Design the sequence.
């Protein structure tokens, strides 16, 4: 790495990573102190879970940072892999039959790579409708040729849902790189950073507020750990965090706060919807990929619902 | 049980190829093992779930549900590496002896125990699978068997178990019989397809069956079936269809199934 490259790191994106790393160092230190003072080094369910969550954050921030270093290609590949894992988790828990084989093969081997290829080529006109229109129609055709009508609509809908949430919605994160925001050329990576920091920050802050003050449950049936105190505290503080980040975005502080609020609310409801699906299926987590976090879908449920709405809000108001 | 069959009808197990295989052949086999284990992991993210007892190096017969050609690969791949070398999948000679590549994969890569079916198939004379299995257990091998007798490609959760496993357990009371439930693999590679769908699989190992002296065949097979069914994850029990038939079959025609025999 030559000196220019090194200083290139200290663009706003570089500074952002310095800041996030600082937060993680702080979090790890607090967790270590808790482990020492509260748990006295003995196993402790809540603190140990906290530590494995923080450790997983280190890995996630490292992975995103690495992808950012490789620019657009890195980000597209990273989210392609995220979609792959998410789709695998979703379809693994969905009820399907022998007749769904071709539809599932098409989802994995055709729709998933095609969607990311379209995002990579920045073909907005097609990637924005490829799955909602073409895959939506193709999948039931393939399922019908399987010749099995038992629970047909349910099976088809599950494969379609799997593609929509795991591939279509998640692909709107790298698609942010394709938006020609006036006066923001070459800095679109920061839109992704803003989205990810606010959404995930909101999740973490809701967790912290909930642990500190949480009493009244928001949705006892869907998600017993979500409380009004956590929701209000978390969304308010994440909205303020978004406003504070307005410097790295094309938004004015008030606009950034509005965007952050939108992202946080979509993220919250995304978590609720994905919880409802898990409850229906009788599982606690989508998978066991990330220690302390469950599966890929457990970690991305809020991004899934926030990303397309954020994408279109930016496109509507900031792209001429 | 016909371990005392006359020499003429005595099946000849393939001579073990490992010792006299050339270094190159052994190297390629080791490479193929690595590729298969890694590939299975990447594709299915396979996860081993051990019950309270955990893995043990004691001689073990792993008996599992059988719904896909990949079953024994996945089971074998999830064993700890040191146990893997002690454990041989049981495979049908009529399938695995059909081409040099299959012989290589069956014998060199997996060190499979090649058995002949009791009934004559294709050009292969009838054999005595139980005698071959007994001989392998006497020699100290651990085995992977699929007591349903054939691949379960229908809607039934589990087919009735064949009686071979009962006879084995009676003759080898010191061997651990560990039930194993392979989840989801049927959907990864359904019958008649070649392109695997990447779905998450798990291999769940239960506690060894307790040995009950003078247990009746029917009771033993019921107990073994139940031990398998009990390993299913909670979320798989709700959507299931009733068992095809709960009575164990009397026929020992396919005492033990051969992975891939009916491809």
Sequence:
């Amino acid at each position: 790495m030559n000196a220019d490259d090194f200083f290139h790191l200290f663009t706003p994106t570089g500074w952002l990573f310095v800041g996030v790393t600082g937060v993680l160092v702080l979090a790890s230190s607090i967790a270590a102190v808790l482990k020492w003072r509260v748990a006295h080094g003995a196993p402790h369910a809540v603190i140990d879970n906290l530590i494995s969550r923080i450790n997983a954050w280190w890995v996630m921030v490292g992975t995103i940072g690495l992808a950012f270093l490789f620019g657009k290609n890195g980000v597209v590949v990273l989210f392609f892999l995220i979609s792959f894992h998410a789709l695998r988790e979703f379809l693994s828990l969905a009820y399907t039959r022998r007749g769904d084989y071709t539809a599932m093969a098409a989802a994995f081997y055709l729709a998933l790579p095609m969607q990311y290829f379209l995002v990579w080529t920045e073909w907005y006109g097609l990637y924005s409708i490829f799955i909602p229109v073409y895959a939506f129609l193709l999948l039931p055709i393939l399922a019908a040729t399987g010749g099995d009508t038992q629970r047909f609509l349910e099976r088809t809908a599950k494969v379609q849902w799997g593609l929509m949430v795991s591939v279509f919605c998640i692909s709107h994160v790298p698609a942010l790189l394709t938006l020609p925001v006036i006066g923001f050329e070459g800095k679109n990576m920061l839109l992704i950073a803003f989205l990810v920091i606010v959404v995930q920050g909101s999740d973490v802050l809701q967790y912290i507020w909930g642990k500190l003050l949480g009493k009244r449950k928001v949705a006892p049936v869907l998600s017993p750990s979500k409380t009004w105190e956590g929701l209000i505290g978390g969304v308010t503080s994440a909205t303020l965090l978004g406003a504070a980040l307005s410097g790295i975005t094309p938004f004015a502080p008030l606009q950034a706060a509005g965007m952050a609020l939108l992202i946080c609310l979509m993220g919250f409801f995304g978590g609720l919807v994905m919880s409802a699906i898990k409850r229906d299926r009788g599982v606690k987590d989508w998978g066991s990929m990330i220690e302390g976090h469950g599966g890929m879908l457990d970690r991305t449920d809020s991004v899934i619902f926030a990303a397309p709405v954020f994408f279109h809000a930016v496109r509507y108001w900031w792209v001429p | 049980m016909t371990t005392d069959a006359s020499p003429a009808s005595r099946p000849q197990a393939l001579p073990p190829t490992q010792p006299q295989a050339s270094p190159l052949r052994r190297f390629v086999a080791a490479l193929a093992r690595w590729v298969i284990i890694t590939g299975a992991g990447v594709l299915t993210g396979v996860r081993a779930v051990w019950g309270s007892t955990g893995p043990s190096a004691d001689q073990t017969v792993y008996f599992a549900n059988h719904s896909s050609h990949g079953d024994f690969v996945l089971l074998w791949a999830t064993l700890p590496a040191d146990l893997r070398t002690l454990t041989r999948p049981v495979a049908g000679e009529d399938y695995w002896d059909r081409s040099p590549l299959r012989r290589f994969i069956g014998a060199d890569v997996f060190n499979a125990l090649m058995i002949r079916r009791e009934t004559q198939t294709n050009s292969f004379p009838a054999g005595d699978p139980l005698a071959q299995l007994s001989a392998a257990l006497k020699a100290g091998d651990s085995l992977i068997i699929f007591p349903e007798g054939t691949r379960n490609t229908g809607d039934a959760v589990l087919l009735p178990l064949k009686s071979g496993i009962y006879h084995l357990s009676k003759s080898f009371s010191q061997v651990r019989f560990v039930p194993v439930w392979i989840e989801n693999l049927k959907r990864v590679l359904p019958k008649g397809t070649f392109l695997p769908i990447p779905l998450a699989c798990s291999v769940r190992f239960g506690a060894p069956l307790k040995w009950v002296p003078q247990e009746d065949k029917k009771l033993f097979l019921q107990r073994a079936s139940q031990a398998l069914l009990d390993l299913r994850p909670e979320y798989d029990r709700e959507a299931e269809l009733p068992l095809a038939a709960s009575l164990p079959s009397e026929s020992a025609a396919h005492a033990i199934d051969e992975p891939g025999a009916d491809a």
